[in-house]
Amino acid sequence: MNSTDTLFETQNLAKVYTQHDVDFFALKDVNLTIKQGVSLAIVGKSGSGKSTMLNILSLMDTHTSGTLKILGQDATELSTSKKNALRSATFGFVFQQFFLNENLNVLENVMTPLEIAGVRRSQRDAKAVRALELVGLEDKLKNMAHELSGGQKQRVCIARAIVNEPKVIFADEPTGSLDTENSQLVESLLFNLQKETGIALLLVTHDNELAAKCEEVITIKDGALL
Ligand SMILES: Nc1ncnc2c1ncn2[C@@H]1O[C@H](COP(=O)(O)OP(=O)(O)O)[C@@H](O)[C@H]1O
Ligand SMILES: [Mg+2]
């Protein structure tokens, strides 16, 4: 396999928390290859290490041993600024808690990653509007975030996650705080984006029905892949 086909590759990846001289393995011996464009579900009970896994892959957290390669680059060899640049250009995030800025309008929320990535002002508007069209919220651009329903908020988050045209969307329990109808809407939006744009979708969920809709499923138990 060509290294450019591979988004993530881990070898004996581990995350250890040490408290009062006792080592606790939040992740251990994780060997994983994730190809570009896939949909992959990470499932497991609460406390099994799903979020830890996602946070390490997305460079929000660091592993304690083993190796992690992102697009062929060893994560431990990346400088902080390289990490930030890679994260901002390559990753999009959707969380259970929306993390929208309630004091900004919808368009401004979606433009935030573009500001962080240093995209020129003249281009930010058009990109953010386009992302909001893709999630069907072009009529809410000027609404304040707090005026939206939960389902609409999560669609804003998806627009914000894709506005930089990332290679992967990390979604940690993206439907965890939505009702059935909105969950289905958000799910189909995420899967359509993955299929139509080739963005990989890395989904953490404890919903087995949702996981079954992904091309690949990995199960974590006590920090280890089953
Ligand atoms: N900062 C931390 N310090 C110590 N233990 C932690 C820390 N963060 C997570 N853990 C532990 O690591 C394990 C995995 O947590 P997490 O990845 O959040 O699980 P999940 O997302 O599957 O519910 C849990 O036992 C949790 O208590
Ligand atoms: Mg979690």
Write a compact overview of the structure shown.
The chain is of the alpha/beta class and 226 residues long. It has helices at residues 50-57, 80-90, 106-116, 121-134, 150-162, 180-197, 208-212; strands at residues 6-19, 22-35, 39-43, 65-70, 73-74, 91-95, 168-172, 200-204, 216-221, 224-225.
Task: Give me the secondary-structure topology.
Blueprint: E1 6-19, E2 22-35, E3 39-43, H1 50-57, E4 65-70, E5 73-74, H2 80-90, E6 91-95, H3 106-116, H4 121-134, H5 150-162, E7 168-172, H6 180-197, E8 200-204, H7 208-212, E9 216-221, E10 224-225
Parallel strand pairs: 3-8, 3-9, 6-7, 7-8
Antiparallel strand pairs: 1-2, 1-4, 4-5, 9-10
This protein binds adenosine-5'-diphosphate and magnesium ion.
Residues 17, 26, 44, 46-52 line the site of adenosine-5'-diphosphate.
Structural class: alpha/beta
Radius of gyration: 18 Å
What series of H and E elements makes up the topology? EEEHEEHEHHHEHEHEE
Annotation, overall tally of beta strands:
10
In whole angstroms, the N-to-C terminal distance is 24 Å
| Uncertain residue ranges | none
CATH topology name, in short, is Rossmann fold
Task: Kindly provide the name of the CATH class.
Answer: Alpha Beta
Task: Tell me the helix content.
Answer: 25-40%
Shape: globular
The number of helices is 7
The CATH architecture can be given as 3-Layer(aba) Sandwich
**What's the domain count?**
1
Report on the biggest sheet.
6 strands, mixed
Mean pLDDT: 95
CATH superfamily: P-loop containing nucleotide triphosphate hydrolases
Q: Assess the beta-strand content as a share of residues.
A: 25-35%
Strand order in the sheet with the most strands: 6-7-8-3-9-10
- Write out the distinct hetero groups bound to the structure: adenosine-5'-diphosphate, magnesium ion
